[in-house]
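RECORD TYPE: inverse folding
INPUT: structure tokens
STRUCTURE:
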């Protein structure tokens, strides 16, 4: 008796592998396959680095209410509200299809617009950051989300403390440190991700402000672990740094996989993210 495929109905469909600064995605176009969906089992199978595909997130392009919609799943099977690097990749696909240099589409956390600004380079309007404790959300009322009451290490001599919290479509916890590369993010990342203060879990970042115009950032991504880059984390870090008067409203955010240009516009409160996209290969899900 044949063993059912963990892919379910997705078996036999075409997919595209792309990445933004090494943050990689399996992208499945479901616009011609209404009713099909990514199950938790399928997402875990596709995200498994020991399997035939391996990626940080699984992305779908769907049609809802007559417009493109981007669905997002982490490698652990959990659904996600936003993914900055994937929005650039999906934006590139949709712009290539239309022949236009700008496109708008929906995500679980709201509308997104993308614009081509060079060869394989896309800028995305990520919308407004959510800064109130109940919007992030936090488990306890916190009047000033620039400084959240979380400590790591001994009570009398914590190693890390007072992170900022920002929601950029998903919750982010940002610790400001003197040396981002010296932090054991693989050890404390999962602890903070699952901290009781974050009922929806959190993406965890360590940010080193190198100047008013540059941030070095490393990210433990909720449901994925340490990633080469995380676009929403870069946006959250710039917002958090500016709120703490550490940077200007526009800065380069240097991640393990490369650099993103982030701007928190004063005119409309929107966060803009510019960075590269890279095509890897096309294939068939088997």
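DESIGNED SEQUENCE:
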């Amino acid at each position: 008796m044949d063993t059912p495929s963990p892919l379910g109905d997705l078996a036999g469909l075409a997919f595209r592998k792309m990445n933004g600064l090494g943050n990689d995605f399996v992208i499945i176009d479901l616009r011609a396959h209404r009713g099909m969906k990514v199950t938790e089992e399928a997402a875990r199978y596709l995200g498994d680095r020991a399997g035939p595909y391996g990626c940080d997130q699984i992305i779908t392009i769907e049609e809802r209410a007559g417009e493109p919609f981007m669905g997002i799943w982490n490698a652990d099977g959990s659904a996600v509200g936003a993914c900055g690097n994937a929005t650039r990749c999906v934006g590139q696909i949709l712009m290539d299809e239309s022949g236009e240099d700008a496109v708008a589409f929906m995500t679980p956390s709201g509308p997104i617009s993308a614009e081509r600004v060079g060869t394989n380079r896309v800028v995305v309007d990520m919308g407004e950051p959510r800064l109130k404790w109940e919007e992030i959300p936090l488990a306890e009322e916190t009047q000033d989300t620039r400084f959240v009451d979380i400590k790591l290490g001994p009570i009398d001599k914590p190693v890390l403390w007072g992170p900022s919290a920002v929601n950029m479509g998903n919750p982010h916890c940002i610790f400001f440190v003197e040396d981002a590369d010296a932090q054991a993010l693989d050890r404390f990342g999962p602890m903070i991700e699952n901290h009781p203060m974050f009922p929806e879990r959190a993406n965890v970042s360590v940010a080193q402000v190198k100047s008013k115009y540059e941030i070095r950032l490393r990210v433990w991504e909720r449901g994925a672990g340490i990633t080469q880059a995380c676009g929403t984390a870069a946006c959250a870090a710039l917002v958090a740094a500016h709120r703490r008067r550490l940077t200007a409203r526009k800065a380069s955010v240097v991640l393990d996989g490369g650099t993103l240009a982030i701007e928190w516009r004063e005119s409309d409160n929107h966060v803009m993210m510019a960075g590269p996209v890279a095509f890897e290969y096309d294939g068939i899900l088997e």
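NOTES: The chain is about 15% helix and 40% strand.
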